[in-house]
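Batch manifest line 699
LIGAND: adenosine-5'-diphosphate
JOB: complex structure
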Amino acid sequence: MAPPTAHDGAPKPVSAPQRAMRKLGLVRDIDLALHLPLRYEDETALRTIGSLREGETGQAEGVVQECRVELRPRRQLVARLHDGTGELVLRFLHFYPSHQKALAAGRRVRVRGEVRGGFLGREIVHPAFKAVEPGEPLPAALTPVYPTSAQLPQAYLRKAIASALQRAPLHELLPAEVLPQGLPSLQQAVWLLHQPPASTPAAALEDRSHPAWQRLKFEELLAQQLAQAQSVSERARLRAPVLAPAQSPHSLHARLLATLPFALTPAQARVCREIDGDLARALPMHRLLQGDVGSGKTVVAALAAARAVDAGWQAALMAPTEILGEQHFRKLVQWLEPLGVGIAWLSGSRKGRTRAAQLEQVASGAAAIVVGTHAVIQADVAFARLGLAIVDEQHRFGVAQRLQLRAKLGSGEAPGGSDATEGAPYEPHLLMMSATPIPRTLAMTYYADLDVSTIDELPPGRSPVLTRLFADSRRAEVVARIGEEVARGRQVYWVCPLVEESEHLDLQNATATHAELSAALPGTMVGLLHGRMAGAEKAAVMSLFSGGQMAVLVATTVIEVGVDVPNASLMVIEHAERFGLAQLHQLRGRVGRGSAASVCVLLYTAPLSDTAKSRLKAMAETNDGFEIARRDLDIRGPGEFLGARQSGDALLRFADLQADGALLQHARQVAPWLLAQEPQAAAAHVARWLASRAEFLKA
Ligand code: ADP
Ligand code: MG
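JOB STATUS: finished
ARTIFACT:
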């Protein structure tokens, strides 16, 4: 946006508070109107000094009798206030000359704060105070206290909000039929929350159960449900190829199942049936496959891809990193090439002729399956007949990439010679996979237009990983333990943290650890893997490690997702306190993939923040990905949990999914009706509440 200009065209200077407001996203009148108080101060009533009791918060008014600086037990300002019913001591441990002036003897002041019993009688330490005239009227409304930042004084913000409230467009958009009983209009609700009359029950404001709060939460939840209902109905108009199961024992699907080195677990078999059901319909599938790390999602993806190939279509599998993509590629080649399937590999790092050759294979259909990073959705990639797109670790893709994928899939053009789509806009089936399960309440709101399949058991023969917390001071013990593990023929990961905003430091750290371990473990091959290495070099290191020649691998978080080396039985995570919970759980999932008992050591450096403590505690207490996800949600809240922060805005500002289940239910019920009966009101409501965020919801 261009900076505001004055009439003469010169840029208008922007004050510090204005800049601070912008930073908080308070730009339009409506933004200010929806910036609601954290709490309130009750300045609407006066108490006599004589009636103030210890422990209560109250407001009184009187005349200063005496005001002086005392030096013992430490320097402080002490004023004595009288109102004819008693004396109140005002004590300031930090003060400026301006305090002395304002509280000089003879001044009339109004003070507010918590009363305590002091050495000299009742007193308030650091009261709020202001000079008043005799008989000065009291405010009629509670005084709002807004969330703010250091550069934005409360008083400035109050004024700005009070003025914006006069102009903000808060007119009613919703018909009465959809509103829950007994709620005020939006306008009334917003005004009340900013300026509650003195009689408003404080508890209902505080716990947000007041009808005014309910109204705002409902507005927000309804907007979300509407946006999702819209995308469901948009999808319902699309056509996808029917990938009906081929009954022949010679189908690729049947042959893959027969040649796999293991039998599917019952959970894998169940999710395969759910996916098959979707693929056999002419509606684009929109399904999330969730399953804990190591639960075996890759083979489910391969079987779905085989369905597409059997029906004469192509399948694409996209992974968030090159390492993971390559691993998928190798696995699919191993499983499917012997069965005569052409598989292409597309990544950002392949340039020139190889890439051109791969693109040609994709475009001609010679490659029935295409594996790669987000290079798969680049503009120059044209599929002959894409029938199924699979996105692994979908939450790891940024919002922009997810939108790009949807744009690519939803190009609306049916491939040439296809009769499957009967003229309707065409879209391939979409399968998303994630090891970070979405708790149910979140799934209901954020992913309402998504079907979910869950693998809820691990393949047989795994032993649970034991997780131990070690202070950094015990590093030597941990290194000795690595030696023992290597002597037993096992392999070890050592993960170094990403130093935020400093890839350079990050690298230094990993390099130093690599040198340290090499010196401590003579005769052992210790490798190093980090994000700055070239693709080929990374692949070479990974292949030494997965081949077993390399016993110890020091890595930055590049190994985070999906790497599969069953012989690795020990993982050390350095500075574990710097990792997020989901990330720690993912990393830990790299061990415990074979039959050997495995250990994950979390090395931490004290002091730990409260959230770091709860993360590490959760890791030590449970191996269950769903439980981890639930705790992660508790610790971080839904906005951050979903990575919405990336998009600059948490999606739900007022509603709380745990507490507001009834409102959510109501919103879910009325959304389809509103869309059908009053589509314009529905669209206006979504625009008011979600604006640019509506697109994000679809991603
Ligand atoms: P994730 O769900 O984390 O992506 P993977 O697909 O990488 O898990 O599978 C983890 C490991 O388990 C792989 O080595 C895979 O071959 C193996 N695996 C998958 N399914 C089974 C099964 N039913 N029985 C035995 N091993 C399996
Ligand atoms: Mg995986």
